[in-house]
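Example record

The entry below shows one chain as it appears in the dataset: sequence first, then structure tokens.
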Amino acid sequence: MGLGRPIGMAMRGDDVGRDMTLGVALSTPGDGNAVDGVVALAREAVSAGLISAWLGQRFDYDAITLAGIIGREIPELRVGTSAVPIFARHPSLVIGQAQTVQAATHGRFQLGLALGSSLTERAFGVPFSRPVALLREFLTSARALVTTGTADHHGELLTVAPPFPAVVPGAGTDLPILVAAMGPKALAVSGELADGILPFLAGPATLERHIVPVVNAAAEAAGRPPVRIIAFVAAVVTGDVEAGRESARAAMGLYNTIPSYRRVIELEGAREAADLALVGSAAHVRAGVKRYFDAGATEVVLTQTDLLGIGVQRDTWNALGDLR
């Protein structure tokens, strides 16, 4: 199957005149209208100099739809999902949503996928088994749908064979498909078939030694250029470091119990997820973000910036939005 041109390459920092490309992960507010509130936050992110906004998939809103609304209302902003679990979702439905949003945003949408975890099994009753095998079939059929408008995939885990063309006029054929991959097998499949990865809690040393080489070796073996490395980094600019640390421990504790995150936390030599958060002065956080670029990240997305409230979040965005 032909992969076409390296999707997403046009979105690298050097193509937009920046040495360091920064985005932000957004959460919906806890009160008022969730959609209106997150659109307002996205406008603030643009004003601070951030160039992309990312939405995690939860059990309430739909991340692809919400990204499309934000991207439609704010044409200066690139939007993406970080990330939509593939279990309990069919490629035809996900790509149909994504292509619709890609047309609505005139090419500014990026589809981030995730393998998921045992939480998916608990929520949907779908056994969480053979995630890497499912990822391979999902990416193979998704790529065919994007590039050719159809698919004829009959695998062990998925059948993707739409009886009619699956083309969304205006969407084009170069939707970036990214994977929240960090384990060696998932990285190998992503390097072969995806346009980039979305590592989270993988510190600079882990990124440089265990993630970038693996995924790009797989890309090279498949005859493809290096993929995009979009690192998600928890960051809070504050003078109250202890409060920031305590809030990070409370908010990020779940990741300590998920094997894929536990692995990268330990590879970095950290004790817990909160140890990977950049908390402190603007200079401290800026220096920490730069280390991710030095380690091979092509873009950094700031996450967990709301740990100490909206005011500190604004301070964090403003302190980092002009990073070069």
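Notes for this example: Residues 1-18 have pLDDT under 50 and may be disordered. The chain is about 45% helix and 15% strand.
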